[in-house]
Amino acid sequence: MISARFEIIGSNSSLETLSLNKICRKLGYRLNTVNPLCFCFNASSVVESKKCHPLLGYRAALVMSPVLGYWKLRGLAQPIRLLLEFVGDKYDEKLYDRNDREKWFKEKYSLGLELPNLPYYQDGNLKLTQSLAILRYIADKHKMLGSTPEERATISMIEGALGDLRNGVSRIAYNEKFEELKVDYLKNLPTTLRMWSEFLGDKPYLHHSTPSHLDFMFYEALDVLHYLEPTCLDAFPNLSQFMHRVEAIPNIKAYMESDRFIKWPLNGWQASFGGGDAPPS
Known about the structure:
The protein is α+β, with helices and mostly antiparallel strands. It folds into two domains: 2-64; 66-281, Glutathione S-transferase Yfyf (Class Pi), Chain A, domain 2 (Up-down Bundle). 46% of the residues lie in helices and 16% in strands. The protein has ten helices and nine strands. The strands form two sheets. It has a five-stranded antiparallel sheet. The chain has a four-stranded mixed sheet with strand order 7-6-8-9, sandwiched between helices. β2 and β3 form a beta hairpin. The radius of gyration is 22 Å and the shape is globular. Residues 148-266 form the GST C-terminal domain. This is glutathione transferase.
């Protein structure tokens, strides 16, 4: 099912609400609310959801929910998912499984993406690729990107450092010599984690007193590191507490307990670390 919003222009009558229920049933839609100004329902198809229907002399239009497209794994999309869940934005996912590579490459250049790649995010007429661009767009909509040049620069600095943290693991995760490279990586990891522990200090979150996209980038990086070396956070209790704090956010907790949450794989299925069909025992 494709989630959508049914926006009614010029409607304020309970009689119109009743009639709209009948019309939607005939069209194959199911209403989830009886708000006369904005009806929510599941559209039976993408094509049908793009139509406008004249209802009782006023105009009605279907508005698609945003769509996040990515592989059926965590990877670059997981911080985006966590941010969307936190802010409560409704969205649909287009998930490509491990056997869908040909399907994706057939669709890649037919989706209207200017720089086709995964993940992609479509919100109305806006079509974005690149995970950080998507994160920043959603964060900006929810006023998380700062109000001064100094604050925005600080946020950009943290974004870059978080990218380095995550990419450090990715560089060895896909290498055939992963086990050999892991030894040297873990030798240097405490220095990196100490830097982040000192940066976080006694703050609840990285930059704001409330969560932002930065915290979901940080959480995902720390969780991947925890899979890599389960004891790596033992010497940094504030980092462990940070992870528990994020997991306890009501929207995040509900998401992680739902069947929509992807626990594994962390990386592409072919990865030496974080791939495959099941996490290590």
